Amino acid sequence: MLDVGRHPNINLLAYSEIEKVDGEVGDFKVTVRRKARYVEEEKCTGCGACKEKCPTVVPDAFNEGLGERKAIYSYFAQGIPSTHTIDPDHCRQLQGKKCGICAKTCQAEAINFDQQDRILEIDVAAIIVCSGYDVFDPSLIPEYRYDQIPNVVTAIEFERLLSASGPTDGHLDRPSDRAIELEIEAFEKKAKKSQKMIQKFEDKYSETSADLYAKYQKGEYKDDEDRVKWAEKYAAHLAVMEPLDALKRKAESFSVAKKLAFIQCVGSRDFRFFPFCSGYCCMHSIKEAIIAHEHETETTSTIFGMDIRAVGKGFEEYKVRGGNHSNITYVRGRVAEITEGPDSNPVVTYEDTKERKVKSEAFDLVILATACAPTKGILELSNILGIELDPYNFVKTSSLSPVDSTRPGIFVCGCAESPMDVPESVAQASSAAERAAESAFQADLKKEEAVA
Amino acid sequence: MPKEEEIRIGVFVCHCGSNIAGYLDMEELGTYSKTLPHVTFVKRNLYTCSEGGINEIKKAITEQNLNRVIVASCTPRTHEPLFRSSCAEAGLNPYLFEMVNIRDQCSWVHMQEKEDATTKAKDLIRMGVAKAALLEPQEPIMSEVESRALVIGGGIAGMTSSLALANRGYEVVLVEKKEKLGGMLNRLNKLGPTMTDAASFAEEKILAVTNHPKITIFTKAQVTDAQGFIGKYKVAIETAPGVKKIDIGVIIVATGARVFVSEGLYNHDGKKVITQLEAEALLSKGLDSSVKNVVMIQCAGGRDEERPYCSRICCQTAVKNAMLIKEQNPDAKVSILYRDMQMYGVENEEMFRDSKAKGIRYLKYDPEKPPQVESDKVTVYHSLLGREMDLAADLVVLSTPLVSQEDAEVTSQLLRVPIDENGFFLEGHVKLKPLDFATDGVFLCGSARFPANIRETVAQGLGAASRASIPLSKGSVVVEPIISVLSDEDACRGCGLCVALCPYGALEIKNTEKGRKVHIIDVACKGCGVCAATCYQHALSINSFTDQQINAQINAFLE
Description:
The complex is a heterodimer of chains A (452) and B (559). With 452 residues, chain A is α/β, with parallel strands linked by helices. Helices cover 35% and strands 21% of the residues of chain A.
């Protein structure tokens, strides 16, 4: 990213979309909409003072909604460009309320609430599509109850949980436990308030609230308005403290997730959704299981899959090493259902095809290896570019010209073309760059010949 | 700049908005910096990298006669190029600039400990000042690039690379050891999953390569020598008429792989028990109608202790050939005995599904209980049914892995590029540099790197051409002068330890008037310092990281 941001030959138009493509190979005219950031890119130094002061808190999309960000934000800490952006759906000023705190904070005077979308026209010789993919939404599979069981997460969410810069600082706290901890925090806030209130009464009457309440319940102080109020406040305090204590007792037994299940082919190799194999998910699960084991050596992982497809360079060896050294068990079988058992533990029901038995097992956390879904925007983009898609909505190519789209001068690489892992994507990106350079060169030759 | 000139260091301490200033005592840092030896000027900036900050640096260099500049701020990874070029704009050699990272190493990691973090920042600045006093000016190193690529291997990978480069106007020398171009393609029948005819695809490519005015082809030829470095290789090619010597700028390794088969593997005899490659020949001739029962065995000689890797393409090859058998002999029963069906991606999985619809049977076996091949049957323990089965077989096809070429090691030594534990060429970075070698100027594609199908091989052929075209299109390579230098020639004994350890092939031993001495190929050196750290004679040192400079830093820290 850094190299891209710094390269003198790369003009980076982030937060922008293609609207129109005219012309032909060697001579395309592309209309680009630069969306308003409400921050002037040339002035913003990326210091982040604005987001510290911004009063509006929004769920953080980068952390898969597991953390929070402000209404003025950078997508993530190391993002390029480092320019911040105001989210117009949440910014108080842009929603017509009074605020403007960021503008007052910004010493570079980069905030511009009046900024509008800008339309650019650029001349290019060739176009490369590398619009990536979307993560398949596992809530479409009812039997996995992704929406209902908090401790069922996607592989990408798990990636954020494992990340040292993620919402849990890299500790494998279970979402159900984190929810309770948040509840405890909320109760503690309330309890602090009610404690303050009854403390005042206790100081005034030199009596403990418990004694007062016992007497009150026996029928004393019926006519003492002040003490009745005290008793009511104490009752309200108890109503907070009782669930708080119960939650705290529960939280005492919390520990990081140590027994993990990875479920392969969630949405892939599934006729209801995507019949294709997403290619990278087997290795992704193995990697996540190995890293989880590095974090906590007691961690055990079970990977449920039909075939474990470890086909890249060094992958099979990595898979075997995971089994031998990282407590990974590979089970051949497709998971039929996930239910919730005691202690918020997801229970996985599956057929162990090797033993020919249906089994159920509870885990601390279940990770869904979700399919590589063609990105939603590709339909519109392909219309704008005038290129064809395959039946699944990946950009159509042929195996003998693997990065050429159906329109000359437009090339494709990475998961926009088909599901693939990092080394394949990097190699393919170079291929697309080559084809783009080649077609630009050839178009120039033609032009020169025409002139001559 | 004369040596005796007074050293005048300017220190610029960056607040980085509140990124640094929020967690460190900036005033203290400013005051402290003024007390350090040779420091004649100190300035604190809100953002040193802003236009204002840069102007402050330039102004101070001129007005204060600074001859060393230190910026204490963020990381050199992002900002060193900017500060260096700013120094250069003000007339100061950019290598007289030193950066101290008080953000990543102080404010970010010690947010809760203002006092200690400030102390640490003072230590780092003091160390930076001590080093800066000893910095010496350097000039960037430039070397021309010969506008000609050498492609080793005339298979589909090499032909694709050659055509791509030639179509962009670069001269290409293509060397093939066999008498005919085409490589493995020549021995294949149909290419999956599209079932394109391999021979006609090969012919089409061979024709294009042969007719291209920019491509010089040597068949039945071998590269026997390659001296030099990126941009300037002197290559010797042994051909039938004699040895050709050619100047080359970049090299692409596209030497492919070969199909494994070992004596007695599942009773392999080349007739009734054959490899997938032999099946290709059988299928292109047309299968005898007597072949009614075919059993294929996956991972034959693969994914075991000797060859622990998965050869990636054998499952798709088996499925493709199984379908072609069904096409030629529709009544034939075809069973594939597998461990995992590696039908990754969109097209492969599609073909896998189609094959099941066409009646191809899949039986999972356990590597602990491998199938037994007898004269007219194969016995297999079906690990999902939990019982042994006898399958009639008048043809057994073994899916054996691709293994590295017999001469891969020779090529590896010739070009000074590494091979991995399985004998395939080892790329610069398995994830981020799949088509580059660590050594600049040498690139890699196709099954020489790792087994690849036709689609992947073509993509990699194009990709390697793209990587190789970068130095070709620039016409020269410019490298940072932060490299290894033979600072004490007399001390060097020419032992060659550093040469063996250099990961970039940047060192060589030369016979000089003073005897065997190490010679550094400037443009190939990355300044990693392995050689200097290894040299027990302390003959080598790294520009801007000399022993003297590092000692000064350590001593400053211990003050």
